[in-house]
Amino acid sequence: MEITRATLGIAVGIAGTLFLGYCVYFDQQRRKDPLFKKKLRERRQKAQQNASRSRTLGGPLPDMSDHEAMQRFFLQQIQLGEELLAAGDLEAGVEHLGQAVTVCGQTQQLLSVLQQTMPAPIFHMLLKKLPEVSERLRASMKANSSSLHEDDVE
């Protein structure tokens, strides 16, 4: 028995229609679920909190033992800090530069370069913010390492 193009086209059309019907049916079932909106709202809030947390920290913190990840994080913070300062967002720019200084292996050299290239008021703002930024990074790293230890136990 030979399958013609018309028969094949009809079969594909029917299969496509059945698939769409299947998708619509389960989408309606999902939307009818009384907990769907609650779960969706919770998921969106959690995603928004994660996004705002990563924005203030400049993205997820890298693994401290991975030199390449730390270097990428450092360069990303420098770039973000420069861009934000150029855009006029001094607080966020200083925050990112502070994170870069905190994770930098040669802190004194970086600070001297920044002192020479940045206006004095912004550099002083950076110096004032450094203890706060380094403490926040330390706390985040401790939280990340404790969650890793908990995951290892399970």
Automatic annotation (TrEMBL):
Pfam family, one: MAS20
Membrane topology: Single-pass membrane protein
SUPFAM superfamilies noted in UniProt: Mitochondrial import receptor subunit Tom20
Source taxon at top rank: Eukaryota
Compartment(s) of residence: Mitochondrion outer membrane
Keywords, ordered alphabetically: Membrane, Mitochondrion, Mitochondrion outer membrane, Protein transport, Receptor, Transmembrane, Transmembrane helix, Transport
Annotated spans, Disordered: 41-60
TM stretches of this protein: 6-26
An annotated GO cellular component: mitochondrial outer membrane translocase complex
GO molecular function, one term: protein transmembrane transporter activity
Gene Ontology BP terms: intracellular protein transport; protein import into mitochondrial matrix; protein targeting; tRNA import into mitochondrion
InterPro entries per UniProt: MAS20, MAS20_rcpt_metazoan, Tom20_dom_sf
UniProt record similarity statement: Belongs to the Tom20 family.
Name of the molecule in the record: Mitochondrial import receptor subunit TOM20-like
Organism of this sequence: Papilio machaon
